[in-house]
């Protein structure tokens, strides 16, 4: 099998990486083209002692490092709102940390392979990834309103929220209380149960809040079937009780990562 045939299956993923790294489809694709041109011009210099995919990314990294100076992400091209928000967050992460995060989390390289690609030690790669995740956590700090009428569950959710570094603006047990708290102290995230203390609805409380301002919402409920009918727009984030703390943490991180209001100016 020729080198070109070996590399072909990996090119779409290299384009994905290039676009994420630069924040631009056109610039990312330019780096991929430059990588292929370098391989064609000097096939004997292509790393033959590693897996072809690893050699391909290694060649890309060498070109990127030698031509991109400070490695800053350029202004993003038009794309989906979520893509633009993600690019804005990645742009604020230090260059090597951004590369380490993308290579491990998105491209699936091991710590050792990533160390080879960016000329660092495995221990340094782990530190770089941790720094990148820490920066994302800082960017997505939020003030959270909890709508939950069961005291023990509310305390558990509040503990999860605070453990992630977020602030709790209040805990509401009824629809009216939830709306009043939201209007008094606008939250950046709402965690809501469906069935509330006075038989009012967390769904209605959320509708009232969203009528006043946009805010990401995560429903945590023992009655998911009420929101999963397929007959109307449904929430993006829905957690079923009893829940795992890790599930709630992941949902919070995901909801805030794509929320424009928490992107630093």
Uncertain residue segments: 69-78
Radius of gyration: 23 Å
* CATH architect. name of the largest domain: Up-down Bundle
Order of helices and strands: HHHHHHHHEHEHEHEEH
Structural class: alpha/beta
Name the helicity range: 55-70%
* Residue fraction in strands: 5-15%
User: For this structure, what is the CATH class of the largest domain?
Assistant: Mainly Alpha
Instruction: Give the N-to-C terminal Cα separation.
Output: 50 Å
Fourth-level CATH superfamily of the largest domain: PhyR, sigma-like (SL) domain
CATH topology tier name of the largest domain: Butyryl-CoA Dehydrogenase, subunit A, domain 3
Mean pLDDT: 86
Discrete helix count: 12
Q: How many E-type strands?
A: 5
Strand arrangement, major sheet: 2-1-3-4-5
Outline = elongated
Provide the number of structural domains.
2
Biggest sheet: strands, sense, closure?
5 strands, parallel
Domain Response regulatory: 143-256
Modified residues (4-aspartylphosphate): 193
Organism: Sphingomonas guangdongensis
Pfam families: PhyR_sigma-like (PF22233), PhyR_sigma2 (PF22029), Response_reg (PF00072)
